[in-house]
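hiii so um. not sure if this is the right channel but i have a protein structure encoded as tokens and i wanna go backwards to a sequence. like what aa goes where. can anyone help
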């Protein structure tokens, strides 16, 4: 085994993963504290969004996923095979980023990262099921379930944020919209207004609400109906809306009114289509389930650990007394031999 291969160990890769995680946490913490410090020190209102965080967290996240994947392999295969897998890993990332099958750098890199990580996790799950029993088996499966959840969250965040489609258009009541939003289109079927709440100043109620009903068409075929409300609050001097959200198996459809012209029956509707959002929610549920399972396994294990500790303590006591008995026996044998020698000499 060469020095280069022996350097690739579980301990070293875990240490490197911890460093990458600390770096990622520092970048995120800096972005969260900067607006607060700017407000306290100078009174400046500062907002840092995805444009700030995405480019700064990309490299630490990539390093963290690579290192965690290597950690899974190093503990189960020889250092030479782990080194080969790491090199293949990097070649795959560069190849997919160069070919760009999704025409989006963030999506290309993420997919090239997640595929080997999922394969390594599946391999570890198979080894755990095959080789371990009892506590070790359940603890390993719980940990790998958490890992799968984290990978799904990462994939869902990147895919949904980079592949979403959003647009707005003015729709006239009773007419099909002319702008197709991906495979969707809208038709406003009715608008109805009402006053609601207690009278306020010169107004007969505290709020004025307009309900907007619409039909949703998927690939020019009727899919479902929905409704939203445009609310003007006289008391607080604000205008706000309700939203329509439909979560399908592969995507989420979000609809909200931006403005309306009640006299002409026109509504400016905002529509957003977010694919793969369920991978994010599924990853969160998977990670939570893994954490709960791990807590249950660890909670039920202390009695076994104490039993093992007690048994190991008894074994140590037995070894101690056996050695002490052997020393006493050897001393008695030496005394007997020395006594015989004295008698023989006389």
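sure thing!! here u go:
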């Amino acid at each position: 085994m060469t020095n280069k291969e022996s350097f690739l160990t579980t301990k070293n890769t875990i240490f490197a993963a911890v460093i990458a995680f600390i770096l990622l946490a520092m970048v995120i913490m800096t972005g969260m504290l900067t607006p607060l410090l700017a407000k306290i020190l100078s009174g400046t209102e500062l907002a840092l969004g995805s444009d700030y965080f995405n480019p700064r967290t990309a490299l630490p996240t990539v390093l963290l996923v690579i290192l965690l994947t290597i950690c899974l392999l190093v503990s189960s295969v020889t250092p030479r095979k782990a080194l080969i897998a790491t090199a293949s890993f990097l070649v795959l990332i560069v190849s997919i980023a160069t070919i760009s099958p999704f025409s989006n750098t963030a999506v290309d890199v993420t997919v090239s990262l997640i595929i080997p990580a999922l394969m390594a996790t599946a391999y570890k799950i198979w080894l755990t099921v095959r080789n371990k029993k009892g506590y070790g088996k359940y603890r390993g499966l719980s940990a790998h379930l958490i890992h799968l959840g984290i990978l799904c969250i990462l994939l869902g965040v990147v895919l949904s944020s980079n592949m979403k489609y959003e647009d707005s258009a003015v729709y006239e009541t009773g007419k099909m919209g002319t702008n197709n939003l991906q495979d969707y289109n809208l038709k406003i079927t009715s608008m109805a207004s009402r006053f609601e709440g207690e009278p306020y100043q010169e107004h007969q109620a505290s709020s004025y609400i307009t309900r907007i009903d619409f039909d949703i068409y998927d690939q020019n075929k009727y899919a479902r109906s929905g409704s939203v409300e445009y609310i003007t609050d006289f008391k607080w001097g604000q205008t706000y809306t309700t939203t329509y959200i439909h979560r399908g198996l592969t995507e989420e459809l979000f609809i909200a009114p931006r403005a309306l012209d009640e006299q002409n029956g026109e509504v400016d509707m905002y529509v957003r289509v977010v694919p793969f959002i369920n991978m994010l929610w599924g990853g969160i549920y998977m990670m939570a389930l893994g954490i709960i399972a791990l807590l249950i396994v660890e909670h039920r294990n202390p009695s076994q650990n104490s039993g093992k500790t007690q048994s190991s303590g008894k074994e140590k006591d037995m070894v101690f007394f056996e050695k002490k008995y052997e020393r006493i026996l050897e001393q008695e044998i030496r005394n007997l031999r020395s006594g015989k020698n004295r008698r023989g000499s006389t």
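oh and The chain has two domains: 3-163+278-302, 165-276.
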